[in-house]
Amino acid sequence: MLLFRWAIFFLLLAAGVMFAFYAGTGRPHYKRWGLLTLKWTVLAALGFFAVLVLERIV
Fold first, then answer.
1. What is the pLDDT of residue 58?
2. What pLDDT is stored for residue 49 in this prediction?
3. What is the C-alpha to C-alpha distance for residues 50 and 58, in angstroms, rounded to an integer?
4. Which pLDDT value is given to residue 36?
5. pLDDT above 90 as % of the chain
6. Which residues fall within 8 angstroms of residue 56, CB to CB, at 6 or more apart?
7. Cα 16 from Cα 18, distance rounded (Å)
8. Rounded to whole angstroms, what are the CA distances from 49 to 22, 37, 53?
9. Which of 53, 56, 57, 58 is most enclosed, with most CB atoms within 10 A?
10. 11 with 37: CB under 8 angstroms?
């Protein structure tokens, strides 16, 4: 569980760094990578919390 929490944290941090690079340089590929990382991080977090909810139910 702790491993998944840290992985989600570091993925969110990486997305933030990519958005900071985009803000600093203005190059659109940093924005694209940041959005892609953010999207997959949110999906992974939703899956993680879905497993936690299912464990509580069962």
1. 85
2. 92
3. 12
4. 97
5. 86
6. none
7. 5
8. 30, 18, 6
9. 53
10. yes
Tokens standing for residue 8: 């989600």
One-letter amino acid identity for 13?
L
d(CA 22, CA 25): 5
Evaluate whether 51 touches 21 at the Cβ level (below 8 Å).
Answer: no
Question: What pLDDT score was predicted for residue 5?
Answer: 86
Output the six-digit token pair for 42: 């949110």
Q: Indicate the Cα dihedral angle 7, 12, 13, 19, nearest 10°.
A: 150
Q: How many CB atoms lie within 10 A of CB 44?
A: 14
What six digits make up the tokens of 40? 């997959």
Q: Per the structure block, which two tokens stand in for 16?
A: 């933030």
pLDDT digits (tens, 9 = 90+) for 17-42: 999 999 999 999 999 999 999 999 99
